[in-house]
Amino acid sequence: MNLFRSKIDDEKSQSIALDLQQRAKSLLNDVEERYLHSLRQQDLATLFQAYPKLKKAMQLHEKKLAEFGQQFLDLCSTHGIEANMFYQGTRSIYPYFKRIAEGNIEKLEPNAYVTKITDEGKWTTNKTYLPLLESVSAQMLDIYKQMQAYIAQAHGNYLLKKEVLTHFFPYLVLMELEKVLDKIKAENELLHISDFNKIISSQIANESSPYIYERIGNRYHHFLLDEFQDTSAIQWSNLIPLIENALSENYYNLIVGDAKQSIYR
């Protein structure tokens, strides 16, 4: 239900069937295993407690930016300054702050017209408006600089929180899907091919010279790894002991691949 609500809040399709199908593929994917491993260590109750805290922190950030935007608009209103008085009018500093005041913070990078004003002092091309704009230019610049400093300090953290919340409920659902998948495999005595690499990796993780590699290494001396661009990190870590052993005994090994064709790019 939380996943369903989050999709509505993000104005996305309410259908979750395709979402679940696509995310379930992650459970059979070597590349995402290291991330899933970390998720499995998390306590669901603790994660649920973190969600409203992250949400509130994001809302406070959005509110702070909106306040900067409103300060600029209020200053303009107090002195009877309108958008068309500025250099490049409706494409310049006034609409920039107006968007932010309205909560539109998708694009915080000021355009060239805004920086022409803030960096070069080109407030207007109309001499009639120049005295009025210059009389409050210091206050306007102060608001602008304060906001830019705040963005530099806090917006990266905001974007990280936003990314986490975007995937929050989908990945909680993913963990539940994994439990269902594990149950099906156990009941039917099944093992997916993707499980083999995980099993081998877990078996050799704490052994300097695993038995399986001693046996294979004594039998095979040369190794050819073809289509290497499609070798995942976990597969490569499983192969390293064999390659290292062969090289230590001066046997030749060959790796063939084309990075441009990699499925892991």
Rg calc = 29 Å
Task: Write down the overall geometry.
Answer: elongated
Q: Roughly what fraction of the amino acids lie in strands? A: under 5%
| Total of DSSP H or I helical runs spanning 4+ residues | 12
Report low-confidence residues grouped into runs of 5 or more: none
- Give a count of the beta strands, DSSP E runs of length 2 or more: 2
Between the first and last Cα atoms, what is the distance in angstroms?
Answer: 33 Å
**Topology pattern, helix = H, strand = E:** HHHHHHHHHHHEHE
Helix content: 55-70%
Mean pLDDT equals: 83
Give the strand order of the largest sheet, numbering strands 1, 2, ... along the chain: 1-2
Overall number of domains: 2
Sheet bearing the most strands, described? 2 strands, parallel
Structural class given helices, strands, pairing? Answer: mainly alpha
Give the gist of this structure.
The chain is mainly α and 265 residues long. It has helices at residues 2-9, 17-24, 33-40, 44-78, 93-101, 112-120, 130-135, 137-166, 168-188, 193-204, 211-219, 233-248; strands at residues 223-225, 253-255. Helices cover 65% and strands 2% of the residues.
How does this structure look, described?
- With 265 residues, the chain is mainly α.
- The chain folds into two domains: 2-169, no CATH class; 193-261, no CATH class.
- 65% of the residues lie in helices and 2% in strands.
- It is built from twelve helices and two strands.
- It has a two-stranded parallel ribbon with strand order 1-2.
- Helix 4 (44-78) runs antiparallel to helix 8.
- The chain is elongated and about 90 Å long.
- The two termini are 33 Å apart.
- 9% of the residues are buried.
- The model has no long low-confidence stretch (mean pLDDT 83).
